[in-house]
Automatic annotation (TrEMBL):
Domain called Peptidase A1: residue spans: 74-377
Entry protein name: pepsin A
Keywords: Aspartyl protease, Digestion, Disulfide bond, Hydrolase, Protease, Signal
Biological processes per GO annotation: digestion; proteolysis
GO MF terms, alphabetically ordered: aspartic-type endopeptidase activity
A Pfam cross-reference name: A1_Propeptide
Domain of life (superkingdom): Eukaryota
Gene: LOC115156481
SUPFAM superfamilies: Acid proteases
Signal peptide: 1-27
Length: 380
């Protein structure tokens, strides 16, 4: 079968067949849907963005802090059970639990999402434990079970996951059914074993790493790749950055500059690379400084700019581990049909920065559990 291939081609072929890919769809975010319905201002007032999950002191064994982010837009499909039941999930490197709605949930948020029916799966086992995930504006409560979870064609047996019985109201506006956490076990509520940890211990991946590619505008093409990296998704060399803490995918940022001047993170700061947050989030004073430096002003809770000025706006540069990671204005400014142009800069009360989807769209991100490092390369 392979007689016509050179050894190098065979090696490349074998490398690619060991990768497991989950295509992601870039759909409408909750913000976009609510803007179309004229409900965004009302929604934002009721459910403000509140990244409370990133305060370490708030973590406990029984609950996991999560954030209401109305701008998330990337979702992939997994299946659970025998025969399989399919669900869309956010692949979230900022949390560690897998959970999906269940047929026992009567919240409005469950009414318009797919719900798991344990009675239809011959491999389901009730774990006999409750689960509570606290949001900034409500909570998800439910119980835990075990079943086969298929991710990118990988059957992960005896995977623990949460089945919701109640969900916060803002989840009704989210496209995804649930969340698949890809952070470290230390972050998991109820000491649940994360999906990727089971992939590693069950020897289901060639390498103990996964990588994320997010398209800028196209609805298709985004990808989570388990077991390695896909050279089709980046240019040049990969910059490997050691983790400063093994709970989130946390790294040290040396500074943030605009036009060669330090505008934020002076003297260094801690940041997490987080696919479960859409924007770049930082302390209020630093975010305000960055916004001023690029010519943005505050309006209606956003840092906004004149849409005609984007081509003349300066880049933001994140200096990490001795290397410069540049975000041109075209990457950090979003244009809304209803609300003009806003930057993806969001302030919080935490000192921990979040490098969300705005950053990851520009830099293909590789998450190595084998080396406890994050790899960053310019995305194609």
């Amino acid at each position: 079968l392979y007689s016509c291939y050179t050894p190098a081609t065979l090696l490349l072929f074998s490398y690619f067949v060991l990768l497991h890919r989950v295509p992601l769809i870039k759909g409408k975010s909750a913000r976009e849907s609510l803007e179309e319905q004229g409900l965004w201002d009302e929604y934002r007032g009721k459910f403000p963005f509140n990244p409370t999950r990133f305060d370490d002191q708030s973590l406990s064994v029984s609950s996991e802090q999560m954030t209401n982010d109305a701008d998330l837009a990337y979702f992939g499909v997994i299946s659970i059970g025998t025969p399989p039941q399919s669900f869309t999930v956010i692949f979230d490197t900022g949390s560690s639990n897998l959970w999906i709605p269940s047929i026992y949930c009567s919240s409005a948020a469950c009414a318009n999402h797919n719900k798991f029916n344990p009675g239809l799966s011959s491999t389901f086992k009730n774990a006999g434990k409750s689960l509570s995930i606290q949001y900034g504006t409500g909570s998800m409560t439910g119980f835990e079970g075990f079943d086969t979870v298929v991710v990118g064609g990988i059957p992960v047996k005896n995977q623990i996951f949460g089945l919701s019985q109640s969900e916060a109201p803002f989840m009704a506006h989210m496209k995804a059914d649930g969340i698949l956490g890809l952070a470290y076990p230390r972050l998991a509520a109820s000491q649940a074993t994360p999906v990727f940890d089971n992939m590693m211990t069950q020897h289901l991946v060639n390498k103990d790493m996964f990588s994320v590619y997010l398209t800028r505008n196209s609805e298709v093409g985004s990808m989570v790749t388990f077991g390695g990296v896909d050279p089709n998704h980046y240019y040049g060399q990969i910059a490997w950055i050691p983790l400063s803490s093994q709970m989130y995918w946390q790294i040290t940022v040396d500074s943030v500059t605009v036009n060669g001047q330090i505008v934020a993170c002076n003297g260094g700061c801690q940041a997490i690379v987080d696919t479960g947050t859409s924007n770049i989030v930082g302390p209020q004073a630093d975010i305000s400084s960055m916004a001023r430096a690029v010519g943005a002003y505050s309006a209606n809770g956003d840092n906004v700019v004149n849409c005609n000025s984007i081509n003349n706006m300066p880049a933001m540069v994140f200096h990490i581990h001795g290397q410069a990671f540049t975000l041109p204005a075209s990457t950090y400014v979003r244009q809304s049909t209803y609300y003009g142009c806003r930057t993806g800069l969001q302030s919080s009360n935490s000192d921990l920065w979040i490098l969300g989807d705005i950053f990851i769209r520009q830099y293909y991100s590789i998450f190595s559990r084998a080396q406890n490092m994050v790899g960053l390369a310019l995305a194609r």
